[in-house]
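tokens incoming
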């Protein structure tokens, strides 16, 4: 074995008959020992996808902005070299606890976690103290390109991105997510009929809204971007706005009171879908800058709108070929029709959009 080695306290285990080792690695070593230099290698000769450079600054900023509260999952890597495990004891549980020694000349290739590696390197340059933190690393013995490619495929095959709704439910750093949770709890019609985990509703769901739809609509309503601060008076304004909207939607109230099934509402009306909620956010953004009595009077006209999917006015706006569409252009066209129904002047951009729509 080489005179020069990396040594890690670790736990030894077995997966699929192969030894593996989980170790805690100081972050300052991550850029030095983990190799990722395959950008110019053809895909079929690589064991990883190419680095998505847009993701790296996001992860790095997350580490720097949450110095006392970040969480990073383990990196998975393969060691192309002779490793040595020294158990703490020859008997009992301590047979699996010990020190993993890896020659410095051994190649250590990342199977999963190359973006974390690049982000750690970037973050340490800005805040060297991060280098004294640790990240767990799962080491396997390298068995060649085919095995490494299969490991990558297996590690990512069953990975499922969480829904926007459950991410909103659990994200306590994002102020827009916090606002969405507040509204889902405190606006009566939302509190009774909001799906908190899924971002889409099944045909038989008893819910009418999703938490992610409330979040997106409220972000538009308050004209907020990612990371923007939301003041208490803005939270209350959003609550008042959505309460007022719900008062002008008798069908929502009937569904809340179990007098009308939500599935029937979704099948027959566009105001039971996220496209309408987000469109109302756009409309509301232009209304809530007015006096409260004035915009509430305008909102009262919502109850006179025909929200039926059979209404041909919604085709090409909230619907495309009879199917609900939440595409940005459809949300904007839905909002402009609602504005016209309420007597709210269209912006220059909206007028141009309407002109193009009428010429189709």
């Amino acid at each position: 074995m080489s005179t020069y080695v990396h040594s890690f306290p670790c736990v030894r285990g077995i997966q699929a008959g192969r030894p593996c080792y989980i170790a805690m690695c100081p972050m300052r070593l991550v850029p030095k020992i983990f190799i990722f230099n395959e950008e110019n290698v053809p895909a079929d000769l690589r064991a990883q996808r190419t680095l998505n450079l847009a993701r790296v600054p996001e992860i790095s900023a997350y580490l720097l902005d949450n110095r006392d509260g970040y969480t990073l999952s383990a990196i998975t890597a393969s060691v192309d070299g002779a490793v040595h495990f020294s158990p703490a004891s020859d008997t009992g549980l301590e047979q699996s606890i010990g020190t993993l020694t890896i020659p410095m000349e051994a190649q250590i290739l990342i199977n999963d976690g190359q973006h974390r590696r690049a982000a750690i390197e970037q973050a340490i340059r800005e805040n060297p103290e991060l280098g004294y933190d640790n990240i767990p690393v799962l080491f396997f013995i390298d068995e060649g390109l085919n095995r490494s490619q299969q490991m990558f495929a297996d590690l990512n095959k069953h990975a499922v991105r969480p829904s926007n709704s459950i991410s909103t439910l659990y994200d306590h750093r994002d102020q827009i997510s916090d606002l969405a949770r507040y509204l889902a709890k405190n606006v009566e019609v939302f509190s009774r009929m909001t799906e908190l985990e899924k971002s889409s509703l099944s045909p038989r769901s008893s819910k009418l809204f999703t938490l992610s739809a409330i979040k997106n609509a409220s972000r538009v309503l308050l004209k907020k971007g990612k990371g923007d601060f939301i003041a208490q008076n803005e939270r209350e304004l959003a609550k008042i706005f959505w309460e007022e909207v719900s008062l002008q939607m008798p069908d929502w109230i009937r569904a809340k009171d179990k007098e009308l099934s939500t599935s029937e509402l979704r099948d027959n009306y566009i105001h039971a879908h996220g496209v309408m909620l987000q469109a109302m956010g756009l409309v509301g953004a232009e209304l809530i800058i007015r006096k409260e009595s004035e915009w509430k009077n305008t909102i009262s006209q919502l109850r006179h709108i025909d929200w039926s999917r059979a209404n041909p006015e919604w085709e090409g706006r909230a619907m495309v070929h009879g199917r609900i569409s939440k595409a940005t252009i459809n949300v904007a066209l839905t909002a402009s029709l609602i504005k016209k129904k309420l007597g709210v002047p269209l912006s220059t951009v909206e007028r141009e959009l309407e002109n193009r729509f009428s010429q189709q």
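note: The first strand starts at residue 5 and ends at 15.
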